[in-house]
Amino acid sequence: MFRANTLILVLAFFSQGLLAFEASDNAWPDASATFFVGIPGIAPSGETWDAAFKRAMAAWTTATNFNFFAEDQGGDPCAGQNTGALGNGIGGVGFADNRCGTEFGSNVLAITLTTLSCTNPGCTGKKDIVEADIVFNANENWDIYSGPLLPQTSEFERVALHELGHALGLDHESSASAIMQPFASNIATLQPDDISGANFIYGGTISTPSIYDIPIKLPSKTSFSGPDDVINFAGTLATSDASLENKFIDVYQLTFENDSEISVSLSSLQFDPSLILARVTSTQQLVPGSTASDENLAGSSSANLQQPIAAGSYWVGVTSVAAADTGSYNLTVNAKTASEGSSFETFTSIYGIDVEINPNPLIKGALRSNDQKFDNKFIDIYQFEVTETVTLRIELTSSLVDTVLLVVDVLSDQQLGSVFLRNDDSKFSTDSRIEATLSPGTYWMGATSFSPNDFGDYQIQTSVVLP
To answer: What structural domains and CATH numbers belong to the chain?
Structure first.
């Protein structure tokens, strides 16, 4: 690990005023952090601050692939912070009447001081988190309680949950119901968006909403690249799951990078399993003619599908034959590459640049030295259709390229319409993001670079943003 450069990131939580999860691109190398917890005093409710803070740590540890550990001895969160140093190597937590030597900003309830270590000599891209300290504003009135926020009384445990989210690498999230919203609210527990954000960073199943009111599970491995891939899932149909036709259902999104021969097997000893397979577009529309299903045979405990499929993104639905059945299951997906590459149609546009018709929500590609150029930079263009007005979040990420993302609408004669969207750097990274409401029509997505002659692998992820 390159440690010549170290940075401090300060994140704050504000009092009330105000997939979406926001990851910071920074992470703990071993998916764990230790806080030295010894906060003196008891809340007006009669509970110790320590107990509430440890409960908040346990909530993240239980719900995600990240682990918080507590040492039962005090750690000063400002040790080494207010002397110009970059922390003391110990994660501390406590109350203070200032922000380690400077005043708290207006309405700031707490801050997280995160020490980052650069992972390359240029100190670019993802950084390692090596220390996190949390300071609660002692000038506020605090208590520990459940339910709606009380007037003029900040609730300690939900603020602790929020700051611990910053400590593990999450940023503020303004567009979804989440403990990571930038202002304190009546949300007092971790929400699906918070859990998905942590699991996105540290490798677990995340969940994204769909236009069908059924959450879509995205496992840590969602892409089949060939030539022979197998993924196994163990899950449970539960009464808390979404339902379809009065049957509980789990839906997984998987992407097949090549045209493939697939075999999908669903088994359960606790319910009669039913299996659904459907190809989806980046706007979550089902591709006509792409849906298949199978129920268990008489006397069998499994449902199976075996068929050739075109490269693309698919939803695999796990449900039951009978209404309201619950229980554990095992799902196995095997894919054998039928042909390298995909069967997506490509055509040469009137601008002399090739365009690939690709409706997938996940696209993996690469800028190459033999690609065509736009504005003296290599570019790949993908065409997709919008059939109903929808808000999309399109993210272009790369560890090798300072990316630029373009989205334009295209008329029937390939002339450009009135929409021209461009993004270079999303937040503090060299990745790119566009979030926009698009009307029905044909659109081109361009993946290119900020500097001429840059090339390397990239990924485009498109998700639907629900109201």
So the answer is: 6-202 (3.40.390.10), 216-339 (2.60.120.380), 346-464 (2.60.120.380)
